[in-house]
């Protein structure tokens, strides 16, 4: 009766030690989509770029200027001059729209990059699942072999006692059993390492193992040409590369529009020696030296780089 109470106490005190989650490949992929730490961090990228859309839609703030000059230390109105002006840079409609387009395309790119990151995580999870599966199978095989060899050692010990075999014959069997014992410990450590990597990929701290019932037999797979066509049109790295070209085009349009001067207009009030003056003022950059040449050229190089990335993604896709 005391042993029964002790066993019940251990079960209630440490329930996690006796539970283990078994994952098929599909279950592992679903778990990583929700809990993988890398994906959790990258989900913020689309939110960050969507905040840039808010910034792009904002208009420039007005500016307030003020000056006051008393004459001969006297603050009497007839001896003072003041100037108050309120102005605003008027952003050209094409420039504002180009900023908005760039921010929107950047958000789309962030979403495509997240899908690509998700695909890469799925690949890593699948490979890690296979590593754990392989380590489990190897461990099972060696354990079975060691059990059989331990039985032979016991038999040979009896045979040695009865002088049926020599000491040399017995030592050979015992040495082989010791080698299996070392191999077993090495495989157990390897399995723990593979499980730790797998748990990190899944974003879980639970004890895990591989579900051996998953035979990895997926029927009704399309033929090669259908797979290639679908991947060319829909695979995330290709879509991300295409989206990067759209971002580059939007950036070129923005940089070219920023080469156009942005006018500033405003009103002023200027009391001069008790006489009140009202007026308007304006200003505009004279594009003698800077016409945003550097940023325009850089944006064109970025587009060329994006086109090269797309060509590389297409070649890599066909190779894979």
Question: How is this structure best described in words?
Answer:
- With 320 residues, the protein is α+β, with helices and mostly antiparallel strands.
- Helix content is 66%, strand content 13%.
- The chain contains 8 helices and 6 strands, in the order αβααββααβααββα.
- The protein has helices at 2-13, 25-35, 37-57, 93-161, 167-202, 224-234, 236-258, 293-319; strands at 21-23, 63-70, 80-89, 208-210, 264-272, 275-283.
- Strands 2-3-5-6 form a 4-stranded antiparallel beta sheet, with no helix packed on it. The protein has a two-stranded parallel ribbon with strand order 1-4.
- A hairpin with a 2-residue loop joins strand 5 and strand 6 (275-283).
- Helix 2 packs across helix 4 and helix 3 packs antiparallel against helix 4.
- The two termini are 63 Å apart.
- Mean pLDDT is 87; it is low at 5-18.
